[in-house]
Specification:
296 residues, Rossmann fold, DNA polymerase, domain 1, 2 domains, 6-stranded mixed sheet, 48% helix
Length: 296
């Protein structure tokens, strides 16, 4: 496959696509040892489509690990506490997905302390420092905050692409306001509190007037005088839940300066390790036709 460097770094929120395959494909799909391999099979197909269609020269896959030691969990024990832990059969498949990416000569990373979002944020910052644009492959709204000029947020499986202008049209807030938006309105999927009684639509209105959380919290008397429905009530809510907003903002913001060895290497693709790839395909009992399209 010919590859030319078009100045784009592709950053993949890999765990979403592993989970999606786990739920979409039957658990009866098993490998050589009789263990489920449905998530790996689906992930392999996703990666094939991405690499075949886009032929990126720089790409990295960020995976989530256990939340137990994450810095967000330490400052807010309730963070993502509403989520069931991954079953053991799926944890094993996550490991095989990372083996697969490594055998392809592609950079992958995970961290006990930071989430995949933070790894992607760090990669994005380094790509921009090198004058590159980023395409973030994900379905997670949180990562929209990383999109700048020339970048794309891309839900690849559903082919939903949003640049910075499209993100603002969709959410009512600029990419740089997404973390503030979620901190005010809360995020039930991550169990982030926000302000009870203030939803996304009202949070958007507040940000349109005050631009960011710092302005909002330093000018709370202005909220009560604003031409907003229930303005006095909103002022009291913001004042009452000031600390919850500040905590939530720490949770919703993505770290873009991780200093960990596994996150620092470049994202340029290396050589395929064919023996490792073949051994993994044997373990997965990958059908010959699908195996050959990779090995050729």
């Amino acid at each position: 496959m010919n590859r030319r460097d078009d100045g784009i770094s592709w950053l993949v929120d890999a765990s979403i696509y592993v989970f999606r395959s786990w739920y979409l494909l039957p658990e009866g799909l098993t490998g050589r040892d009789g263990q489920p391999v449905n998530a790996v099979h689906g992930f392999i197909d996703f990666v094939y489509t991405l690499l075949h269609n886009e032929a990126p020269t720089q790409i990295g896959f960020a995976f989530d690990q256990s939340l137990g030691q994450s810095w967000r969990k330490k400052i807010h024990p309730g963070y993502k506490a509403n989520r069931e832990p991954a079953p053991e059969a799926l944890k094993r498949q996550f490991h095989d997905c990372r083996r697969f990416i490594a055998a392809l000569g592609i950079r992958h990373a995970a961290s006990d302390r930071h989430e995949a979002d933070d790894i992607i944020g760090t990669w994005a910052a380094r790509a921009r420092d090198a004058g590159r644009r980023v395409h973030i492959v994900t379905g997670d709204k949180d990562l929209a905050q990383l999109i700048g000029p020339g970048d794309l947020w891309w839900e690849y499986g559903r082919n939903i692409r949003r640049n910075a202008a499209a993100i603002e049209r969709h959410y009512g807030a600029r990419p740089d306001q997404i973390a503030d938006l979620l901190a005010i309105a809360g995020d039930a999927s991550d169990n982030i509190p926000g302000v009870p009684g203030i939803g996304m639509a009202t949070a958007v209105k507040l940000l349109k007037r005050f631009d960011n959380i710092d302005n909002l919290l330093s000018r709370t008397p202005e909220i009560g005088r604003a031409k907003l429905r229930g303005a006095r009530r909103l002022q009291h809510l913001i004042e009452e839940h000031r600390e919850a907003i500040l905590l939530s903002r720490r949770l919703t913001g993505i770290v873009c300066d991780i200093d960990e060895a596994e996150v620092t290497p470049p994202l340029t693709r290396g050589d395929v390790d064919e023996p490792a790839l073949t051994a993994l395909f044997d373990e997965l009992a990958l059908p010959p036709a699908r195996r050959q399209r990779w090995l050729k």
